[in-house]
Specification:
With about 525 residues, this protein is an alpha+beta fold. It is about 20% helix and about 50% strand. Among the domains are: about 1-40; about 40-205, no CATH class. Strand 9 and strand 10 form a beta hairpin.
Length: about 525
Amino acid sequence: MTKYAKLIFITLGIFLIAFAVTVFYVNTTVKSKINHFLENRLPPHITSTQGKIDVNTFDGTVTLSDVLVKIKNKNDTLTHTFVTLKKLVVEDVGYWDYIINKKIKVEDIKLKDPNITYYKDKVALKKDTLISPPIKLFKPFLIDELNLENATFTIIQKEKDSLFLQTKNTNIKIDNIEISKETLRNKIPVKYSSYKTTADSIFVKISPYENVTVNSLNIKNNKVSLQDINLKTKYSRKALSKILTKEQDHFNVHFNEIQISEVDFGFKKNRLFIKSPSIIIDTPNASIYRDKLVADDPTIKNLYSKMLRKATIDLTINKVAINNGEISYTERVKEDNSGGTIDFSKINATITNASNTYTAPQKTEIDIKAIFMKDTPFKSQWSFDTNNPNDQFLFKTEIGKMTASDLNLFMKPNLKVALEGTTNKTYLTISGNNNQANIAMRMDYDKFKINILNKNGNKKNKIFSAIANIFIKKNSNESKDDFREGKGTATRDKTKSFFNYVWLNIRAGLISVLTGIGTTDNK
């Protein structure tokens, strides 16, 4: 072998040895840095263990296997959060940025099969309002892409029925993340450019009695799609009535899909805001039951304008569209039956300015078209000003031709009353505030008659029926344009809902129209 060849081999050998030493040094240094960070930079109430750390200098990949993170309260030993990971993969670590630019830059972080469990009842509430960073971070941390793959999130409560929230098969991708000492002081401790999320089998406990489930969630380009949503009371109607101490609705509600476009959220002056130009609710189907034999709920019920005004978030929804919905409401008043029902089908509605951020003269406006009971056209326009402290509102309704007996499904079991005749057209306008409202009603009807039933609701009481019909004008054709007009006033029972308030007004208007006694006061 020539001297020249020997020199080449010696040089190459030295280079390979130097390279191997360098790789070993870098790998050892990176492992040391990771261990140092996990042991010294995490606050005392956060602990982390892992099975193995692998470092690949060639492609800048760091892999932590079988990771377990525990988070305790700062002032006691209770652990409230557990995080397990099959693998934590950090790809393409920017060593040059770390050495030269004094920042940590990573191309991709993958969290494989993370399982995050949070115990709400074990969290010690903070007494101060100052936001302290969760970790000590001395250099900015930049991540081109963060991926959570096949994640499970669970929130547990202390109660016997302890599951509060759970999502399965959750995949999250967040782009261009920046974490720094500055961002860690914010309520949302990171900056990012975009995110994408998919999940299924979502469960949320919204009250001691109701749960919400979602079969599929998809978020992409700030557009949210929820599919196959169910809101259900977890007890049967009878079982719920037995355990309630005050009346409450029983729900069975289903939505095919809810779409929310261009969602924006965050904090402004420490107040959460949520914005969207459009929400579409597709094919809602709601069955609602109220057992009036259960004791009344004496708490004050705010009107919707006040609910929005007093909300703890800034909500700006420009438009909500409800497509092809159905609502069935059953109310049980008597012990001897299961209640009476009213139905709305083919509901198409638009809500404009579902918001508490707009200023005058803008108002929340609700436009509804539907079929009432069997085949009666129904239209309603409803508006209110969230900023009005008196909760002023205007409610207008137009009801098409209806056979009065269609209402007997509700009237017979609850009121022991049966109706006869036909209402050809009904107009009503209710104008009021949180205390009192006035109604103006116009009604075109023929051969209207009320039959008072016996106790069992299966037979007409001829004497009481005859007396009742003495006061009722049977037809409206004696009036101008075949319409009889009436006016009434209703005082709100503030322990009841807005729709009870509407009913009190309608009852006052009906008494005025049918009896011809003029304005009535309905309290």
